[in-house]
Design goal:
The complex is a heterodimer of chains A (126) and B (364).
Chain A (H helix, E strand, L loop, with lengths): L20 E4 L3 E6 L2 E6 L5 E4 L1 H9 L1 E5 H13 L3 H17 L3 E4 L15 E2 L3
Parallel strand pairs in A: 2-7
Antiparallel strand pairs in A: 1-5, 1-6, 2-3, 3-4
Chain B lengths: L2 H12 L4 E5 L23 H14 L3 E5 L9 H10 L3 E6 L6 H9 L4 E5 L5 H8 L4 H14 L4 E6 L8 H11 L2 E5 L19 H8 L2 H4 L2 H4 L8 H4 L10 E4 L4 E3 L9 E2 L5 H7 L1 H8 L21 H7 L7 H11 L4 H11 L12
Parallel strand pairs in B: 1-2, 1-7, 2-3, 3-4, 4-5, 5-6
Antiparallel strand pairs in B: 7-8, 8-9
Helix pairs in contact in B: 4-6, 8-15
The chains are: A alpha+beta (126), B alpha/beta (364).
Chain lengths: 126, 364
């Protein structure tokens, strides 16, 4: 993998998650409602809803933390899931969202100025 | 069910303010004949105040944010506000007359990920559009802005208000929009001034114009379907609400006042004195708005149009009661279907039965 891109991407199985950095695209709107992340692409107005696990990965996508670390420190610990299962699901999730331009993926850290830096509020969880 | 509909339903259930319309200024470089605003500045919010409110809105769960005015670009900090809003990941829509948008502004709006820009165009003819805006050369500058925005790949919608002075031009304005490659909306609603002055209502088009609009496939799709007579009103309709104002949406003025909607000037609190979430959750006025179901409406609950009418509670409020009818929506329902509303029948009966107070001489 080279550089930062949007569009079709499949994470090469030969590479490790430690080589993968993910960042939220600057062309999206997002907000957490009742524990689920709602996302709309400003490019094509497509709308997505993420479950709680996917929401954790999305919120941790700061462009600087390797995906492997997100999976190990956030997903496996918060949801008590086996590392191999978590890794496989995370790869699939990142691939899918990058295809819709929601996530940017790179083999290098992604500069923060390229994307909205703030996470959103968490409503509906009183 | 689409995700968007599901999101709306969930927001309604959770009491989340999904959409907020914020007017960042009432100042404007145009003086449109039909405008309901006073364009003087009585102390609009500072950059810091608006940013603080945007933080509060994000925390409250607001997803859709509309920046409007006045003319938004009259504020020198407008793009800074858009950038801040986008960092908070709002879906941002901008309403503008476009006069101050050039290549730089268009490029920045695209870079910031603005979802849509809505631009007011009242006619394809400069002599009509400029006469409405009272700004010479405004149509040319507005059309230029649309080209700049389109060149950036932004979604643009032309928004037209049908009035007595431009009623002959709406088809050509729609054709112009198509030529420019942008969407087009037409609204025959002219609202009273925010201070209650109703003189602008003289610009409303007459019945013949409404009949013509409602039978135009280019505007309404399938006229037979659009103009179908209303079916029976079911229990779900009676237990429902007129619109999202105050339920999942609200409006903020440049002076930090919070209203249920831009067309519903019911003061519910001020963000210079209270936090947004406190107003949203605890305002007695919003609680009253939210308590009103269709079955509670004084006249409309008995109307055959109850399930299909576009009744605006804000216009009803300005007419005298948020539980009462909105006469302009009664007119629309009537001209759309040919069936008079309960409000129209009531008024006709009152007019035919003589004076409201009658005195008969006592017979000795």
């Amino acid at each position: 993998m080279q550089g930062i891109w949007q569009g079709t991407l499949t994470i090469d199985p030969a590479e490790t998650l430690a080589d993968t950095f993910i960042a939220r695209s600057p062309a999206i709107a997002a907000r957490v409602m009742d524990g689920e992340m709602m996302i709309m692409s400003a490019v094509d107005s497509t709308f997505f809803s993420l479950n709680e696990v996917a929401t954790v990965i999305f919120q941790a996508a700061d462009g600087l933390t390797p995906l492997s670390e997100i999976v190990a420190k956030r997903v496996c610990t918060e949801f008590e899931v086996e590392p191999e299962e978590a890794r496989r699901d995370a790869e699939q999730f990142v691939t899918e969202l990058s295809q819709h331009g929601i996530l940017l993926v790179s083999d290098k850290p992604i500069p923060a100025h390229n994307f909205p830096s703030s996470t959103s509020g968490n409503v509906g969880k009183q | 069910m689409s995700l968007l509909v599901e999101m709306n339903e969930r927001a309604m259930k959770l009491g989340v303010p999904l959409s907020v319309h914020i007017d960042v200024t009432y100042r404007c470089n145009e003086r449109c004949q039909h405008c309901y605003l006073d364009h003087d500045d009585y102390g609009e919010m500072t950059t810091a105040e608006i940013k603080d409110i945007l933080d509060q809105l994000a925390e409250a769960g607001v997803f859709f944010l509309v920046f409007s005015g006045g003319e938004v670009f009259m504020r020198r900090d407008f793009l800074e506000l858009v950038e801040y809003a986008r960092k908070l990941m709002f879906n941002v829509k901008v309403k503008t007359n476009g006069v101050m948008i050039h290549e730089y502004e268009a490029r920045r709006l695209r870079e910031l990920g603005v979802e849509q820009v809505q631009i007011s165009v009242y006619s394809h003819r400069p002599e009509v559009h400029d006469a409405i805006t009272k700004l010479p050369g405004s149509l040319k500058r507005t059309l230029d802005s649309i080209k700049f925005l389109k060149a950036q790949g932004l979604k643009v919608t032309v928004s037209n208000v049908l009035m007595t002075i431009n009623r002959a031009d709406h088809r050509a304005t729609q054709a112009l929009s198509k030529e420019l490659g942008v969407d087009y909306t037409l609204d025959p609603t002219v609202t009273p001034m925010m201070d209650g002055d109703t003189s602008v209502l003289a610009l409303r088009v007459d019945a013949d114009n409404l009949d013509e609009l409602f039978s135009d496939p280019a505007l309404v799709g399938n006229p037979e379907e659009y103009c179908a007579k209303p079916g029976p009103v079911d229990e779900d309709t009676m237990e429902g609400y007129s619109c999202s104002a105050g339920h999942t949406a609200c409006y903020i003025t440049p002076y930090a006042d919070v209203f249920p909607c831009v067309q519903f000037p019911l003061a519910t609190g001020n963000l210079r004195k209270q936090k947004f979430i406190d107003i949203w959750k605890h305002s007695p006025q919003l609680a009253e708005v939210r308590s009103i179901k269709v079955k509670d409406l004084t006249v409309c609950s008995s109307c055959s149009h109850a399930g299909t009418c576009t009744r605006c509670p804000g216009l009803a409020y300005m007419e005298g009661s948020m539980r009462g009818p909105s006469s302009s929506d009664c007119e629309k329902s009537f001209h759309r279907t040919g069936i008079p509303s309960a409000n129209m029948l009531r008024k006709a009966a009152a007019a035919s039965s003589g004076p409201l107070i009658q005195i008969a001489p006592m017979m000795a």
